[in-house]
Amino acid sequence: MSDLKPPGTFSGGPIDDFVDGWALIPFVGERGHYWREITNGLRRQGIVNDDDLRVYRSLCGVTGRSTPHAKAMNVGNWPLCKHCAKKAPRWARKEERATCWSDPAVRALFR
To answer: Which of 31, 72, 83, 106 is the most exposed place for a label (fewest CB within 10 A)?
Structure first.
């Protein structure tokens, strides 16, 4: 049993109606970031015309986009961005990072 290798990285699956929190945005880097949706402001400026497109900005400044076909994914056991971890709200840095922090029921557990 000592020759077992640790598992590879995996995500926890897609997050429906993701707004903010720790997540993997498809095709954006190799780490989980703390994302906040910025689509609404872009819609007001006329930059985003597609209602299904969501635009996010991480606390470290990376921009990502998701669509219904390429949704934000739960972090799973992927490593987290160190810059986002320093800037993230205190309740979001807890060890239970694999939990979807955008879920209000989960947030209520840690308030």
So the answer is: 106
Q: Bridge-partner residues for 35, per DSSP?
A: 21, 58
In three-state form (DSSP H/G/I as H, E/B as E, the rest C), the secondary structure along 98-111 is CCCCCCHHHHHHCC
Is this prediction's pTM over 0.90? no
What order do you get walking across the sheet with 63-66 strand by strand? Answer: 20-23, 33-37, 54-58, 63-66
CB-based burial of residue 3 (10 Å sphere; 0-12 exposed, 13-18 middle, 19+ buried)?
A: exposed
pLDDT of residue 6: 57
3-state secondary structure of 86: helix
Q: To the nearest whole number, what is the mean pLDDT of the chain?
A: 75
The Cα–Cα gap between 50 and 37 comes to 15
Domain ranges of the chain: 20-109
Average pLDDT of the segment spanning 67-83: 87
DSSP letter at 32 equals: B
